[in-house]
Amino acid sequence: MPRPDHAEHPSTPARRAARFTGRAAAVFAVTLAALFLLLLAAFALPGGPVRANIARSVPLLQQEGLYPELFGFKLFQMDNYTDTIMLFEAAAADESDPLTAMMTAAAYNVDNFETLPDDLQTYLVARDRGLAGADTGLEPFSYARYWHGYLIWLRPLLLVLTYGQVRVVNYIVFLLLAGALLWRLWKVCGRWPAVWFAVSQLAVSAFFAPRQVQFFTCFAIGYAACLWVLAKPRAAGTLAVGLVAVGVCTSFLDLLVTPILTLGLPLTVWLLDPRVPGSRAPLRRCGAVAGGAVCWGAGYALCWASKWVLAGLVTGQDIVGDALHQAAVRTSADTWHGMELTWGNIFRFVYDTLNSRGLFWPLIAAVLVCAALFALCLRSRQALCAALPLLLAALSAPAWLALLRTHSIQHGWFTWRSLGVTVFAGLAFVYQACSLSAARQRLRRKRD
């Protein structure tokens, strides 16, 4: 009896790849469909109570201003401008049928964006009088290239709460997620991973994120994804499929704030989980990190592109062209304060800024000292290889910020929080690769 062809054997790599692709595609489709229906339902909610609570919220926005800085510190700058747009979209969601409104994501303003809270008040008064948005004297504009999935929970909350009270809900959810994640990290991975996570989140002021709807979203998704990873041991293939869903959720719910958190945090948690099989195979784990990143990126990109296509079909606008233009702007050279954002100009600006404050050479010296200490404390080559997957996870945030360098620099006062991944994974990498005992032994041998 002839042997079956090897390519048709059910355990061949090709067959396994086909099964994985099928699982990933199914997860993508189910996740996107569920979010689509939830968002459509949010747009179908009655608009009167939503606008009434938004009207009660406008004085808070007018009092705070568009970009208030807590403690007078730039890295604690808020973005009430974007949150006001979110409220505008929630208020205007019933101007047309739910599907059209969902695809259009309309808001209104005048030529001066600094008057946006006043424009919102004007719009609400006009709608209360029975006028349509086009009759308010304001100019319509649209962010149709985004899904605006945050309205899934924002619009239902605005039925009964003001914007200030929504912030309180954000903090409650944040504390519950962060507390649960710290507890699970301590229980599953041990004390030090919980400490590294806490330090990393404090370092990027994660406690500030719930003050803004747009800042809060990626932290919530990232923490929830970490809890999913820790719920039980996840094989690399299961992790990758799960990251497809995480990428879809991030693209659907976020406005390009700190999306890499939703990839880097769960990847780091997975690498620290001692229950995961194959924990002693660093090359395979590096492959799992790279494969997870590809799956997350595929879910993210395909979800976003699906909005461009659907919105273009429903509205008749060139959403695809607009989105591709915006993508080019965010990933290629543009200007910032009159400076073209080429890599040469960026490095020159950093050097001039540090040098003018007398910080450049001290910083170089600090980097060299850290490199020397790392070499002195390195356990072994084997330990370094075993820790390399964590280094890959740590580099995901700088790579993302570099890829979107224009957006990262122009909005650096909130995009910097992506580096929470680097701090978390970086501390774990140093801990696994280095030890004080190794340094003492090298110094002792040198003295002897």
Description of the molecule:
The chain has 448 residues and is an all-alpha fold. The strands form two sheets. Strands 1-2 form a two-stranded antiparallel ribbon. A two-stranded antiparallel sheet has the order 3-4. Helix 1 packs across helix 4, helix 1 packs parallel to helix 10 and helix 2 runs antiparallel to helix 3. The radius of gyration is 24 Å and the shape is globular.
Compute the number of strand runs.
4
Principal-axes geometry comes out as: globular
The share of residues in extended strands comes to under 5%
Mean pLDDT: 88
Radius of gyration: 24 Å
Strand order of the largest sheet: 1-2
Secondary-structure element pattern, one letter each: HHHHEHEHHHHHHHHEEHHHHHHH
* Helix content estimate: over 70%
What profile does the largest beta sheet have?
2 strands, antiparallel
Q: Helix count? A: 20
What's the end-to-end separation, in Å? 71 Å
Which class of secondary structure composition applies to the elements? mainly alpha
Low-confidence stretches: 1-8
Summarize the structure in short.
By secondary structure, this protein is mostly helical. The chain contains 20 helices and four strands. The model is unreliable at 1-8 (pLDDT under 50).
Key descriptive features of the protein:
disordered N terminus, 3% strand, mainly alpha, 448 residues
